[in-house]
Design a protein that fits this description.
Largest sheet: 5 strands, parallel
Structural class: alpha/beta
Strand content: 5-15%
Helix content: 40-55%
Distance between the termini: 81 Å
Low-confidence stretches: 6-26
Order of helices and strands: HEHEHHEHEEHEEHEHEHEHHHHHH
Strand order of the largest sheet: 4-6-8-9-10
Mean pLDDT: 93
Shape: globular
Length: 425
């Protein structure tokens, strides 16, 4: 009786970036052309830091205080300046009016001086029409005309701050909505919003831009006045040519195709920028790429492909918008920025001409592989070389940990932070 032949043995080899870029031993090799594309992309890459990302934040149940968290606008600028010095790609800091400029325009001179001291520029101005008690039932959508007027005046004051600081963007997010059916006239609120946004838009100077953000729910749980990108788009178009849509990656329903929204808004010339974070369930505000880095890569790819096809820059801004409840504030920010650089560099590696050919011929596997090969490539060696060429540390996180900065600010700020109130009720 003949013995059965043994099953064939399968030999695993490293997966190549492309069939043409395999070095000795089958290892992935980044070609000179791809390296040039990555360097070009990094030279143009900027991501804005949020001032509030350096302060103590929490959840509606409370917050865990960190001894090194920033306790003032000056400390936020100092921390943001540190991240920029280590990474080289964060020259601007987004500001929240009530938190960073509590005296309004009277604080502009001091803020401008802080920016100069730390090698930064003021970024997007974020009005705050959600925390005051008067906004319990809404701001621009409030049934009380006096409160709508109060909210509108705050927006107009924020436009003036924009002008004083030389900031291009007014970043608008509204918590307005309702929690129970029948409690608000949704159509009336839409009209009030349209009116308020139009007045705000018309007060802006040439070269300034209004960014209209959306969110499906929270804090409102029955209806939100600007719940999705279509509503934000309609409001932006009604406001005027200075208004566009702001996409927060956490402000979507589960499994929503965000890169499709990005593609549409790019094609309509209505995409202003992004607030980047990550999530597992809803608006979790986790660090960028911690849950789904492939999604961020796909978003960056849509922008890169648009720029390749049109031959012009997309003109969209990237901003971090995260709540670092547990991770150290500055380390979380450095981790986020370096992750963004890696994913942006990976997107720059995609061969758009080849991909376009595959798309036209419906070569599905080849087209998808174009993306997956780029995403799977380790671009960190190129990023390290780029950083050193710019006089930056090759490893930003290690440089921060070796700098002594964290120990210094912990000693300086610890007592103030630990004396703060952290309970929910």
């Amino acid at each position: 009786m003949m013995k059965p032949s043994p099953p064939p043995r399968i030999r695993l080899t490293p997966y190549p970036e492309t069939t043409h870029d395999i070095g000795s031993g089958g290892h992935i090799v980044i070609s000179n052309k791809q390296t040039d594309r990555i360097i070009h992309a990094l030279n143009a890459f900027h991501i804005e830091l949020p001032s509030w990302g350096f302060a103590n934040t929490g959840t509606r149940f409370g917050k865990f205080l960190q001894p090194a968290a920033a306790t003032s606008t000056a400390e936020k600028f100092a921390d943001a300046g540190m991240v920029h010095r280590l990474t080289g790609v964060c020259p601007t800091i987004a500001l929240h009016v009530l938190w960073d400029l509590p005296k309004g325009v009277d604080d502009c001179a001091a803020v401008q001086a802080m920016a100069v001291e730390h090698g930064l520029r003021p970024g997007a101005i974020n009005p705050n029409v959600f925390q005051d008690q008067s906004y319990k039932y809404g701001s621009l959508g409030n049934p009380d005309p006096a409160i709508r007027k109060e909210a509108l005046q705050h927006l107009l004051d924020s436009v003036e701050i924009q002008k004083r600081l030389g900031s291009r963007d007014l970043s608008l997010w509204f918590a307005d909505g309702s929690n129970y059916p029948g409690t608000q006239n949704i159509r009336h609120r839409r009209h009030w919003f349209e009116e308020g946004l139009k007045i705000t838009h018309d007060a802006m100077a040439d070269g300034q831009r209004m960014m209209v953000e959306y969110k499906p729910f929270e804090p409102a749980f029955y209806h939100t006045d600007i719940a999705d990108w279509g509503m934000a788009l309609a409001f932006a178009k009604a406001a005027g040519p200075k208004a566009k849509v702001l996409v927060d990656t956490g402000h979507h329903y589960q499994a929503q195709n965000i890169e499709q929204i990005v593609a549409w808004l790019l094609d309509m010339n209505m995409l202003a920028g992004f607030h980047f974070n990550d999530r597992r369930y809803a608006d979790d505000d986790l660090t960028m790429g911690s849950i789904d880095p492939y999604q961020v890569f796909r978003i960056f790819h849509e922008i890169a492909q648009f720029e390749w096809e049109t031959g012009k820059p997309a003109g969209v801004d990237f901003t971090v918008d995260q709540s670092h409840n547990l991770k150290g504030k500055i380390e979380a920010m450095i981790q986020t920025v370096t992750t963004a650089m890696e994913l942006y560099a990976k997107a720059a590696m995609v061969d758009h001409e080849k991909l376009a050919g595959y798309q036209t011929s419906c070569a599905l596997v080849d087209a998808e592989t174009c993306l997956k090969d780029a995403f799977s490539t380790d671009v960190r060696p190129v990023i390290r070389e780029w950083a050193v060429s710019k006089g930056l540390p090759a490893d930003a996180m290690d440089a921060f940990r070796q700098s002594g900065y964290l120990e210094k600010i912990t000693a300086d700020r610890g007592q103030k932070n630990m004396a703060a109130v952290s309970s929910y009720a």
